[in-house]
Each structure stands twice: as structure tokens, then as C-alpha cells.
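Check this:
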Amino acid sequence: MGHPLRSTAAVLAAVVMTGTSVAAASAQTDAEPTQPADAASSLVFNEIESNGDTTDWAELYNTGEEPIDLSGFHFRDDDDDHDYVLPEGSVVEPGGFFVIDQPLDGEAGFDFGLGDPDAARLFAADGSTLLASTSWQEHAEVTYARCPDGTGELRQTTASTKGESNDCSLPLTINEVSAGEESFVEILNIGSWEADLDGTQLISAAANETADSQDLSGTLAAGERTAVEDLELASAEAVELRQDGSTVLDAADWSAAGSAVAETSSGRCPDGDGPFEQTLKATAGAINSCAGIAPVQDWPGGADVAVADDSELVDEDLSGLFHQAGEAGSSGTLWAVENDAGTLFQLTEDEDGAWRPVEGWAAGRTLGYPDHEGTVDAEGVTMDGDGAIYAASERDNDAGTVSRPSVLRYELGDDDGETLTATDEWNLAEDFEGLGANQGLEGVTWVPDEWLTEAGFVDQSTGATYDPAAYPAHGDGLFLVGVEGTAAVYAYVLGEDGSAERVATIETSLDMVAEVQFDAARDQLWVVCDDACDGRMTTFAVDDSGTFAEQATYRRPAGMENLANEGFAIADAGQCTDGMVPTFYADDSNTDDHSLRTGTFLCPEEDDSDGPDDSDGSGDSGKPESPGRSGEAPGRSGDAPGRSGEAPGHSGEAPGRSGQAPGHASQ
């Protein structure tokens, strides 16, 4: 059966539209709405959607026995300047729900986001009488909600229930079942908060008859798993995990799998959220052993990560990075973009090891659009072979609710001024219909045509080996963009005539993509996730089929916290010292007043810089192995329990691909 915890949005029932808000009532009366003085004792924020995606909302609940007229009331976050006045006709019934939403389908709504940390506050029509409030320190994985409705404490949920009674089910899954000599059922907490097992029960059954049951107790921390070993499974063919005697949290049925569950085990592949498959071996209390899925590896570089910027570099929102090799003896140049103000920074390393803006770049350069005013939400940065800068953007921040997934090109001159105006823009919106404004391009990297042809890269739009000559006037390489909302990477030919032709889709095992970097020294592509995936990074190489296939997934360095690292760069091989090259991380949250950190990674093997990897991942390429070329089978890492909410099109196939989108490229 499908996993019941995967639903992130319930279908609204019994709803009444009032302006931009949704009021769902469990009881309707003809009584006159109460006055604000009575509302203070009856209104509570019941559910908050602040999880870093494209839409935020706040749900109110009426605990009283009379309807409450909210017309003219003020909704604010923690900033008094962010003020939204509820429209006329906004009424919440007794025992009912009322959703204060952002603009949807042309309706009015609040035009500010709910951040981390942040708050939701409701004021009476006078704008000063506080009626209800709540606050939080970080985004929810799905939502924050009261359990039970109206009276419980706000806590993380496993499903969004906008305008309906909250889903208070525990974030637990059956992850593996073995009916062999050492039979067990493994339970995994896929949520981001501690789960109390008291009141949960495992029930095994055969031919729809109960074989055994066992009450569970204790707690499971986020990501923790436990193996229950005393349940009768030898005669069973299915098992259910129930909460409070009735709610089925998860189930596993191996009636059609024959003896597989006794020979090894039946486990979720990938671990935590995949479908049940026969495993390679039983792994009670550990990550499932699945065919074609390489386990996550420890970071092979240095464990330590150090601060590499001054606290005044940016307040927050540092995002994409690109390291440009310098002359012999030089540490090169680090290019960085800040997404809120759309700023490009050129950084060099000082004698004290800190990376600071070069002379004249203290405030960076504001990135502009080629044809209109606006603020580029710069999320990624790269450079082509001619030295032009390219930025990846999710949207124009001046129209923050509209998706504008774009690649923009900039030329650098001796006297650039405070603003760089893009020479060209490739707006890929037609290729990503329905993509949220905050789910677009997070990273961009340039890959030379020469490398791609030598690697035998296949153009998926034709099914043949990529031929640069088939795309005249496109420059000397392809641009690979990482899309947050699909957790995939896409290869594009950007034409001088403004066209953008997608030639490949690269699916990843990560929950989201925060950065992409082509690594010529190791003949591989880095795809990076941020704190949503506990800082994991996956490497890809072109295999014998001509596609970018996963090689290895690495944990973040042991000495680094789980930061919101939206940028990653690895230094040129010429920076190799004592077997290590520098790595760089951009923390979007500016933790402890620092946004840039540096660590180390193993230097590439000498022969790895000679050309593309012509192996199939088996290690038989004739070249020495280096990190990221370990020969691990492509597949999901399987190490991260709990997705951060469902994103559209996670399979990597973006809806509405048009094949051609407006754009252009450098010469």
C-alpha cells in the first residue's frame, strides 16, 4: 500500500471562500458574530505553513460557541510593517477553521512570507489590540499544528491539513520486515521531531486473521529506528503499525513475495520512503541494503570546517559559489551571489586566510535584467570559457510570487559601476509550468562541449551522441541547472537567438538541489543539497550509456553543523597542498554572523585531469580511482529519513516541457 505519511495537502471539505481566505466550519449557526473583546479568548492559530516553499498560510480556529467576524482584522508576521487587512465577510464559525492565505488565483492575500524565525499575529480592527499570536524559530518540515485542534501545543506534523482538522499521526514508518531465523520489524521515525511510541501497536496477520500483536513504548528521536523482535511473523504475511488502536500509520504486505521476507528481508528501497523490495541482506537497526543503491559515505576530506569571511560580508542569503583558478601561487578568485538583493561578489584570499571583496567590490555588483527593472533572485553562479559570468535565478524579487527560472549572462569590464546589466536572459518558465516561485533554479554550471563529446554524452532529445554542430551559435558548452522543486538537474543548449533547448534530464537521489558544480579535474558533476538533506552531496559521471549516473553520496564534513549551505565550490587542482584542495560553502542563513566557510577535499588523482571518465562506474576505466569515482552503483543514498515535503515533479520530469524557451548564449 502507499505510505500514508506522504500526503502533504488534504482536500478541503465544506469550505466557504471569503476574499482570499478559506473558512471551513465544523458547525454553522445563525448567531451574530462576536465582538473583538470576545474574540481574544476564542481565537487561536491552529496550523502554520512556513516550510520554505512557495506558499505560506496561517489557520485560525474558533474554540468558542459563537461565530466571530474577522472583517477588518489585521494579520502580521513579526514585522509591524507587514500588515494584511482581512476582507469583509471573513467569518469563522464555532469549532471552525479560517485560513489566511497568500494571493491565489488572482484573489487578494498577504504578500509577505513567513520565515525562520518568525511569528503569526492577529490584531483587532483598531490595529493595536492583539487577539492571537504564535511564533517559531525555524521552518516546519511540513506544518506546525495543534494536536488536538485548538488546545494542544503547536508541533511538527506529517501532513498539511489546510482548513481541516489537524492530522496528528506520528511520523513513523515500517522500514524493514524479516521473517527469517532472527525475525524483526524495523520502525523508523521519518519526521523531524521525537515520536512517543506509547499508544502504538504492531499487528501481524495471515489470511486476514490476526497472528500476533505487540504494544510499543518509549520514544524515537528524529531519524532513529528500532527493531521489534518479539512479534510472530513466521506464519504471517502482513504487518500493520497502528496509533491509538485505530489509525493505521503504515503497513507491509509480503503475501505476493513468496519466501523473500524469510530469505533476507522486505525493506523500503531507498531507506525510509521507497517501496518495499527484497533486500540483499537483513539489516535490523541499520540502513537497508538495496540493490543498485550505494550507501552514504563519510566525507573523505578533512573533518574540520573554518569560517572564511568577515561578519559584515552579507547579513544573510549568500547562495551560489564558483572558484576561478588563478595564476601559479595564487589562491584564485571566489565568485559568490547573494539572492535577496541580487548581488555578485568577487572575493580573494587575504594573508589571514579570510576571503574578502577585491578593491572596489566591497558592496558587490547589483545584477540587473537586460530589458526591465527588477531584482534578480541570484541563486547560482558560474563562468564560461570566455570569462563571462552567468547567474541562475528563481524569480524577480520585485514580483516575488511569480516564477521566473532564468539564466542570465553578464560581461565584466574594467569599470563596471555598481550595477551589471545582463546581456542576455534565458527564461525557462515554459519548460517548468506550474513550478513555484521559490522552487526554481538554485544552481548553474558550465560544461565544455569538448569534454562532453569526449565523454560520449548522449543528447536525450535526439537519442544520439551529443553533437555541438547540431546547435550552431550556442557557444562552446552546455549549461546544467539545478531545480529545487524537482530535485533534478537539466542540461541546456543556450542559443544566441534566444532559444533554450533541453538536451538531458539528470535525476538525483536528493530531496532537493541547492547547487551544481562541474569538476573537470575529476571528470564529474557535484549536486549539492542543503540542510534539508543534512548537507549531503552526490557526484555524477557520464557512464557507458552516455548519461550522467550517480557515483557516490557523501555526508557533510563531521566538523560542520547542518547549515543551510546553498553554495558549494571546490578549488582547482592547482591548489592541492598535502593531498588536499580547499572547498567552500555558502550558508544562506548566515549562522553565527558568517556566511562563508572553507574545508578540504582529497586532491584528484593525476590522471583524472586528462579527460572525461570513460568508465561505466565499475572502476575499469584504466585510471586510478579518486573520490567520486568509486564505482558505486548509481542510485539513491537512502540515508536521509523523512522528506521535507513533496515537491512537484520529483521524478525529475518537469511538467510542460516545450523544448524551446526564450534565451540566448555567449560566443
Q: What stands out?
A: The chain has three helices and 49 strands.
